[in-house]
Amino acid sequence: METKDPTTLAAWKDLTTMAAGFHLDLRKAFAADPARAENLSFAAADLHVDLSKNLITGAVFEKLLELSAQAGVRDLSEAMFNGEHINNTENRAVLHTALRAPAGTQLMVDGKDVIAEVHEVLRRIYDFADSVRDGSWVGVSSKRIQTVVNIGIGGSDLGPYMAYEALRPFVKPGLECRFVSNIDPTDISEKTRDLDPETTLFIIASKTFTTLETITNAKAARAWLLRGLQERGVIDETDAAAKDAISKHFVAVSTALEKVAAFGIDPRNAFGFWNWVGGRYSVDSAVGTSLAVAIGREGFEEFLAGFRAIDEHFRNTPPASNVPLLMGLLNVWYSNFLHAQTHAVLPYSQYLHRFPAYLQQLTMESNGKRVRRDGTLVSYDTGEVFWGEPGTNGQHAFYQLIHQGTRLIPVDFIAFARPTWDLTDSETGKRQHELFLGNFFAQSAALAFGKTPDEVRAEGTPEELVAHRTFPGDRPSTSIMAPALTPKVLGELIALYEMITLVQGAVWGIDSFDQWGVELGKAMAINLGPAISGDAEALAQADASTRELLEYYFAHK
Ligand code: F6P
């Protein structure tokens, strides 16, 4: 795949010229064009996306579409959908879209029909989920499973954890999932200390099955299980008893099935996926097994249908109304031409409290790159810092800086028309959801339209406070709404951001599907093992700062 330096493209140069001294007065823009909100609002599956409060003019909009065409965004996305090896540094296809392709379609990659394989694994996951949910899967003492503990990290944790939290209303009553990720022993200890080993099932999720955190926690879980069962007199201390217990309380999710077997997990209890699924793109693969158990076969099928709806929208909708394309291009506009450094995602849904963390891995591990596909250094910013918290909590914490600080921070607001819990205030009779949504509607309007000094004065504000109480406005945001937070809508939201990430990476000419930047720290942590254990020779080889920190550790441990 050809690598282009986007700064050499005519549209990039034009956008640079257009951005010089660029200022858009959003009040005037809306006044001048009464159809602005309508013309810049788009539908993508169940999502209603209002781009009108972004800092764009018709000319910028057109130029961004030209940039997309010149950078070959569509060529890259088609190559992805067709299974070409667009992850060039690992020489792999990038086919998370095949995970949600309908049964009966066919996609041959490296000589295999990957969609048939996907549906075979899905069938096994659904059978497993059914058996846990209906109680036919029982633990070693014949008790039904009440708690599923997913052990994984990064993509093998953030996706299922975020989705489980988001879809709590759809979780089968009486069944709980917990998520252990950190190698900090606190995590596994806190998540298991009140559990009954007889009714607990572990899912060890690791694409590579070599990740230190996951394997360490899996071993801790195995020891906890066997100790607990032995203490209760459920099993004796023989290897055969341990093997039997593990086969009833451990399943695995991985691309490395031989390593799963070596760990002692019965290969019949392992759900595979493929090296063409990146960790951060894997929640809709077997990595979502805990979620499938929680929300059931139908819920998971709906979840996949949501992804599929956005894939189809992205693939088939013309550029000028293609939502992921437009949102990705807007991010490029803000990052590279208006020099925003960060991007906030503010869901007005407590259920989406892990969504910003999920997006951090998706976007920052994908697009935090400093060289293009061909290894040449970029001369422009790539992946922005994604961050956020649910509204309205964030309003009482960091929104101050977004409203009145000095930085440009594009914001994505997300909200749902229908509440899961429809409470009414007993004194005022007002629906709590409407008080909540009032904040969602108000925040994007306040950011866009602000409050002028004259408006502040007209409220009788003393002159010395006018500057403090003025809101400059013209702060950009996108508002995403959907009827309700369902499995399908969650799938749509995730796929939306997957495609936005692809668009940005395509414009920047980088490989959005490798993650070499995580390797150095991992290797160094392992190499420091002997020094931490007190090996004097290893300690002497550490750098001066690390030695100093280790001395503090030795003095205080
Ligand atoms: O360290 C980064 C990473 O490789 C992520 O890309 C991945 O999601 C995570 O670690 C976990 O990897 P695995 O699923 O192989 O345990």
UniProtKB/TrEMBL annotation:
Its EC number is 5.3.1.9. It is found in: Cytoplasm. Pathway: Carbohydrate biosynthesis; gluconeogenesis; Carbohydrate degradation; glycolysis; D-glyceraldehyde 3-phosphate and glycerone phosphate from D-glucose: step 2/4. One of its GO terms (biological process) is glucose 6-phosphate metabolic process. Pfam families: PGI. It catalyses: alpha-D-glucose 6-phosphate = beta-D-fructose 6-phosphate. One of its GO terms (molecular function) is glucose-6-phosphate isomerase activity. Gene3D superfamilies: 1.10.1390.10, Glucose-6-phosphate isomerase like protein, domain 1. Its main location: cytoplasm. It is an enzyme of class 5 (isomerase). One of its GO terms (cellular component) is cytosol. The keyword Ion transport does not apply. PANTHER family: GLUCOSE-6-PHOSPHATE ISOMERASE (PTHR11469:SF1). Belongs to the GPI family. Catalyzes the reversible isomerization of glucose-6-phosphate to fructose-6-phosphate. This is Glucose-6-phosphate isomerase. It comes from Mobiluncus curtisii (strain ATCC 43063 / DSM 2711 / V125). The lineage of its organism: Bacteria, Bacillati, Actinomycetota, Actinomycetes, Actinomycetales.
